[in-house]
Amino acid sequence: MSAVSGSVSDCRSTFAYMDMLLLSPRVRPDVITYTCIIKAHSTLSDPSAALLTLELMKSKGVKPDAFAYATAINACARGGMRSGPPSIRPGLIAYTSVISCMGRSGEWEVAVKIFGDMKREGINGDRTVYNAMLSALGRGDRPDMVVGIWEEMMGRKGGEGVVEAGVDRVSHYGGRISPDFISLTAALSTLEKHEGYRSSSDGIFKDAVGGGVVWKGALDEDTWEVNLAGMPISVASAGIRHAVHRCVEEIIEAEGIVKEDLVFITGVGKGGGKEDRLTLKDFTRVYLRDELGLRTVGREREGGVVVIQRVVLEEWYRKYGGEE
């Protein structure tokens, strides 16, 4: 017998002894003890033993917490078991915990599988678990699946990427789930990396505006001011495009007349994302110039402002014929 197989055998013997101790009336283990044993069975890819330990835990009057359930779910994922008996099936909190954990560790495929298992168990997700999925898929750099999750949150048909991953969307979807700023940031931080998903990114930002997640309207119709302050750069870039698009619509409605300067309020700090290096003001200037061909000026007395002057907008509109 090799040293490795001997070690595994020794571990199994040790865990078997620990399981026997749990049955002893003299031993009073707590939730941490049970969870450690569940995790040990998970390490050995023994989901049945993990689930039995969870059931024993409940029979002994020790209430499993979210981490205990999440550990058991992980054991099932490692061992290829979809779910346990109905009496010990975990709830939404446990599924959310393990999806978040898998996402943070970069195991997005496991997160997708567990998300599908949750839905097949008839458990409708809430915004928190959907945000966890958006984050996990972002770490896996799967823009196709990010779009699918967002579409599902909005109550629309999900993307093919999610379907292919085995998520049973139709049977157990409970209706629209209103996204929040966390949802928006998680989605756009992935999509903005991929030029081919620009239209999807724009659609998601438009959804967010319509749902009041950002801005109550497209822009202040009286002053043409757009507030980007505090936004991560990935969100701000979509916001800039959205504002320019709305500005063009206003110009078209006014038969080519530009009423005001277009003003972006950026603040003086960096973008709100953890990885943002540029100040939001500098990013806005560069993005408008390089991506949209719009020259800007800064107001000296207002440090956190970027302005596209009315005359510049008129020239740009005539040059591109309203094609932003």
TrEMBL record:
UniProt keywords, alphabetically: Repeat
UniProt PPR repeat ranges: 30-64, 91-125, 126-156
Phylogenetic placement of the source organism: Eukaryota, Sar, Stramenopiles, Ochrophyta, Bolidophyceae
InterPro entries: PPR_rpt, TPR-like_helical_dom_sf
Gene3D superfamilies: Tetratricopeptide repeat domain
Stated name of the protein: Pentatricopeptide repeat-containing protein
Lineage top rank: taxon: Eukaryota
